[in-house]
Amino acid sequence: MFRRWNNSHQDQENDSSQREIKINELKAAIGPLTGRSAQYCTDACFRRYLEARSWNVDKSKKMLEESLKWRSTFKPEDIRWEDVAIEGETGKIYRANFHDRQGRSVLILRPAKQNTASLDNQMRHLVYLIENAILNLPEGQEQMAWLIDFTGWTLSTSVPIKSARETVNILQNHYPERLAVAFLYNPPRIFEAFWKIVKYFLDTKTFHKVKFVYPKNKDSVELMRQYFDEENLPTDFGGKAVLNYDYEEFSRLMAQDDAKSTGLYGSNDKLNHDTNGYAGAEVAPEPTCLAPPAS
Q1: Do 237 and 185 touch, CB atoms closer than 8 A?
Q2: What is the biggest distance separating any 2 CA atoms in the chain, rounded to whole angstroms?
Q3: How many Cα atoms sit within 13 Å of 287 on the Cβ side?
Q4: CA dist 78 to 37, 108, 127, Å?
Q5: Are 41 and 287 a contacting pair, CB within 8 Å?
């Protein structure tokens, strides 16, 4: 028995050692970084990109370089609540005031509450809240959970396919391994037509993180309870807590978080003089469902 434990322990150590080697290989492949790119590319960041590409260094390098290019133009760290506040008036996406059982931040999405037509602004709002969810993660936790409420959802109130595809693109390609699970709570039957299209945008890993939950399906409800304390979970999702979105209060909380974010990231001018130990310019990127989803 001791020999089996010892062999298992040794295997874990070897696996950990191999992963550290991969992280160092990716660091070397990416090369010198400065400014925001240097701040973004922590060891944990390298690990997430490697995990997303099954620890293939070349594929991870390509993915990370594309993200760095995206971040240099989209500038997610510089988005402030006042820039996207109009998108938040109805509470179509917001960070919940509770975590799941693993301490993950929780984003609540209510697609029927869509209130604007600008795809660019909608994506800035989404990215702002993803960044905010990450900002509010406890130490040692890197992922978030999504709760999607389909109350009032119809094909006429659904987001356009283009919006859904861009949401998936941003989440999968620029925030790899940030999503732990996404619960789609009680979607109407008509959602099947929408899902048949959207699911093809999902890679295999993301697809398996999507869980359909129906109040009358015992297995899917039990799965939800494995992730959330019933006392914290809103009644909209089968829990006991009352869900009230207060736009003014949420705006106040976001203003406080904006101040924290500014302190964390500093100004772009200052960061451009900070490096990760190299002297150089910014990197130049190279040109299961227990209640099964509809099919």
Answers
A1: yes
A2: 63
A3: 0
A4: 14, 23, 11
A5: no
Question: What sign has the CA pseudo-torsion 33, 38, 41, 44?
Answer: positive
In the numeric block, the tokens 């995206």 are attached to 70
Tokens, residue 76: 């997610």
Q: What are phi and psi of 146, to 5 degrees?
A: -110, 135
Please tell me the distance from the alpha carbon of residue 132 to that of residue 135, in angstroms, as a whole number: 5
DSSP character at residue 212: E
- Residue 57 to residue 30: CA distance in whole angstroms: 10
Q: Using CB atoms within 10 Å of the CB of residue 176, give its burial: 0 to 12 exposed, 13 to 18 middle, 19+ buried.
A: buried
Q: Which residues, 6+ apart, have CB-to-CB distance to 261 below 8 Å?
A: 77, 80, 131, 132, 135
Residue 57 exposed, middle or buried by CB count within 10 Å (0-12, 13-18, 19+):
buried
Give 221-249 pLDDT, tens digit per residue.
999 999 999 999 999 999 999 989 999 99
Q: Could you tell me the CATH superfamily of domain 79-254?
A: CRAL-TRIO lipid binding domain (3.40.525.10)
pLDDT digits (tens, 9 = 90+) for 107-154: 999 999 999 999 999 999 999 999 999 999 999 999 999 999 998 888
d(CA 153, CA 190): 9
**DSSP letter assigned to residue 294:** P
Taken as a whole, the chain contains a residue count of: 295
* Collapsed DSSP state (helix, strand, coil) of residue 34: strand
